[in-house]
Amino acid sequence: MSVPGLSRVLDILRSLYPTVQTIEDYVDGVALSNGRKAALVEEADTSRFKSLLRGLIVCVEKQMRDAPSGDQLSTLPEVLAYVLNNMNKNKSRNVLRFGYLFSDKDGDADPFKFHGVITQSPAFIHSSDLWKKINQRLGTDLTQHLLRNCAVFAVAPPTCLFQVCGVPLYDLISMHVSPRFLLCKSATQSVPANPQRKRHARPPRRNKVHPREVSRKRKRKREDGGEVAGDDEGLPRKQRCCQAMEKTCDSPVLSHNTNITDSEQTSNHNNNTTQAVSIFRRPKVATGTAQASSTSHGSFSWKPANQPLPRPSECFIRMLRVLYSRTGIRGFLLNRKLTCGSNGPRSLQGPDVVRLVFLQGEAYLSGEEPKPKRLPRRFFNMAPLFSRLLRNHRKCPYAHFLHKKCSLANQPSDMVSLLTAHCRPYRVYLFVRECLLYVVPEELWGSDQNRMLFLARVKQLLRLGKFESLSLAQVMWSMKVRDCGWLGLKAGAHCPSEHRYRERLLGQFLAWLLESYVLGLVKAMFYVTESMGQKHALRFYRREVWNKLQTLAFREHLSKGQWKTLTSQEVASLPKTTVTARLRFIPKAHGMRPITRLVGADPVTKRFQRSVKNLRDVLGVCVKSSPALLGSTVWGRQDIHRVLKTTALQQKIKPTPLYFVKVDVSGAYDSLPHDMLVRVVSEVLSPVQDVGFSIRHYAKVWRESLQGLRKQFCTRAGAQVCINMKGFVMEEQEHGELHNAILVENYNSPDVKGRDVLEFFKQMLTTCVVRFGKRMFRQVCGIPQGSVVSSLLCNLCYAHMENSLLSHITEKGGCLMRLVDDFLLITPKLNKAMYFLKTLSAGVPRYGCVVNPQKVAVNFPLEEGVSFPGVRVLPQHCLFPWCGLLLDTQTLDVYNDYSSYAGLSLRYSLTLGSTHSPASFMERKLMAILRLKCDAILLDLGTNSLETVYKNIYKIVLLQAMRFNVCVQSLPTGQSVETTPAFFLRMIWAMAKATYNCIKQSNQDGSLGSVNDGCLRYKAVQLLYCLAFELVFVRHRHKYRCLLPCLRQRKWRLQRTLSGMRLARVRQAATPRVPPDFKAIRA
């Protein structure tokens, strides 16, 4: 199937589904129950109808069990209602269900009626003449199958598709990974069909047996009434059994970073044959399925049959699950009770732990019936070992080990001292190691080598960042399965398939030990959180320390008078529409930042969250049509570049002394008065109170050359008539904002009135309640941090203040910028700068504006007799810091401020973790970071001088080289630069090419010149890469011995090619080789 202009989006579908066809091709392959073929196209059909049919793409998710009937038993509205009602009853995840607002108030149970409003895809199908003809010609059965069990996409010319029904496409993008795998799942469950990844079995070896012996045994078999045996019947029973297993074993396939083979044997009791499946199977995201053809050991089997189990390289233990835990040692897994029905809860025993580890997981603790009811002999023999583990756990002196390894030198009481009283990951590892050595019996380790390897992985796990994970394949690396005799039925030699099965059991045990015991113990004894200044690095606070910190932070926050405590009577009288937010704190350098988060999946909370998003979107439409409502607001570096470029060009044409004032508002979100917020928002929404807004939430899926498949969730809002999804996609393509993508509509609010939005905002300020512990509070001042609309409300309020008090501040030149609550004034008039400083330093109580004097800076001497305590006075000509940038106060050249990296490790500025292809993930990660760091404000030759741009490029490249080294250090065991040096060299030159492309994109006015003759040549960028990477590689010479010669050869060749001024520019940018602001950065 080839459709002009759709080759890229069709390739996306082919990578996710086993079959991709037009609806004509799909119908041609379907046989009806009467043996005939369904006729979808007739000779009398118009060309428009035929083109519409060619624009429907069908991807089968689930095959039909029986041949469909070609009779039309119901009309299209009845079929659609029946399908939607069944989806709603079964809570199916389907794009079709997104447009069905079910509300059965009358209790009508008629399945052929709509019990609610239909929008989006259901409305599109309901009003479509095309679908009516499809239902008439294909019949009810096939139409129902298309809507329920197929993913149907419609063409939106010229290059896009949108999904009509089926499981949302974006659900298939992210591969599902699991930290563990169990043996009790049904062996007859469906397996994702993936014909491209079939593994062919290795042909078995056949031992030669004397023909007379074989004939004698066959004769005896016929006399006994049994079946004729195979060619290896004359072998001894043990050897014959092993060969039978080997006949169907897959050839051993090594993972990318593990030496574990991935096949497993399973028996078939019906035909006495043996089949094998992969013990760690990649969980494919394609939804085409095929039922397992082999029978298994019952509906719930302790043996692996055709279960779609992940490989160990795709099973991960994630650090994210240990964050913000409030459960103590009582909530630890091994201390939990087992629900036993009418007998009440009881403590865990050895067989219960065996079921937890190998068979059923934590669902067993919730009262799930034992499956199988009796433990198989292999697992029954393990029960005594796990009983010993339980006894050791109950005797373990956890408090003593914690005090011994994570003790505090003194007991601080002030907040600043408590903030630094967190335990380092190594001290936490020492505590966990003591507990493991005490609790886990020696027999479970198998050998000292296994124990030491596992402890090394525990240390590695506890050093990971917030979003990182550890692969089970790394945990299993070099583990000796043969040393763990408790995994088998009996000691001694065993066949290969038995060895693979034991590998799998050992992987299950180690995954449980890491995920449930180690991380569970850390959650029970520590409060784990991130901090504001250290990116993704985790802090481990002992419970008593965190409780003191939290109490002090809460008292300080409560003393500001922004919250009102609710009495029990007030709590009981709260309306049903009240939503409750939970409060938590994040450590800062000198305090704690409160973060509120709505918790709950009930309809009231969902409705509230949707209304908050509608408020954000409607306000966004208003400020887009009237930018003056935002005043001097800038949303990021792109806006800063736009505002600063005009002033910088004027300064370069006519240099004048410039005066800088930087002001930071203290507690901006928490100090906004509610009455002023209502006034500001009312003024914004007053012109549109009777206007209806259309708000569309959708997902976009596309493919990038380096990043692969990508997905993004978008929102479009506008005061216009709502059009269907096809019209919307075609309109976006006409505007040039969309191409070669597949869209999935999630939610559409066709008529949101401005009056309703304003009423909700007033209700939001008065009914939002915060819970902290067992107490509840109402926020009487400020807005909660963490809400999607908080930044916009803060910007609108401060913009209103600027328009009231500071409207004349830039009348005679200069510019005013504000990034949420950080103000920066650049003006050629000293009196304007002083007025701005005096006005904000005095505070503006009407707007809750209180300045933090420690974060105020100027570049001019203050007037005599005027005192501003705490204000930092910088030289007249300096690099002025503001929001991560350094601005030259004389030329307005812009540099990046790297002081935020001082004292921090780059290791925690990246999210690495374990992936199936770590080197490829490393390349994608570094490329994405490089594009983010190559800001136009740093590379624009119209704003900056050539010397500044060269210097900015060298610093960007040097930091990228340091990130490269951090990523290499994080590669899994067995992988290094020496394995494939050519790949890493290509990665470096690809980054150089990407950097030059960003430079060209930032200078599209022609100031850059050509590639070979311009003022900044591509070879100069390559030479900067050589100098920066050589500096990093020399420091770690033992790792990069294979790359240094190639890098130096390229450097010498480029130095010979570049000569004169261009070479001098490069050397000037790279002097000193290590800039002063880079010396404090830790790799």
TrEMBL record:
Q: Which GO terms describe its molecular function?
A: metal ion binding; telomerase activity; telomerase RNA binding; telomeric DNA binding
Cellular location(s): Nucleus; Chromosome, Telomere
The record's annotation in Pfam families points to:
RVT_1, Telomerase_RBD, TERT_C
Coarsely, its chief localization is: nucleus
Q: Which GO terms describe its cellular component?
A: chromosome, telomeric region; telomerase catalytic core complex
Ranges for domain Reverse transcriptase: 567-887
Would the keyword Transmembrane be found if you checked this record's keyword annotation?
no
Show the catalytic activity: DNA(n) + a 2'-deoxyribonucleoside 5'-triphosphate = DNA(n+1) + diphosphate
**Enzyme Commission number(s) from the entry:** 2.7.7.49
Q: What does this protein do?
A: Telomerase is a ribonucleoprotein enzyme essential for the replication of chromosome termini in most eukaryotes. It elongates telomeres. It is a reverse transcriptase that adds simple sequence repeats to chromosome ends by copying a template sequence within the RNA component of the enzyme.
Subunit structure, interactors included = Catalytic subunit of the telomerase holoenzyme complex composed minimally of TERT and the telomerase RNA template component (TERC).
What name appears for this protein in its UniProt entry?
Telomerase reverse transcriptase
Question: What organism does this protein naturally occur in?
Answer: Clupea harengus
Q: What is the lineage of its organism?
A: Eukaryota, Metazoa, Chordata, Craniata, Vertebrata
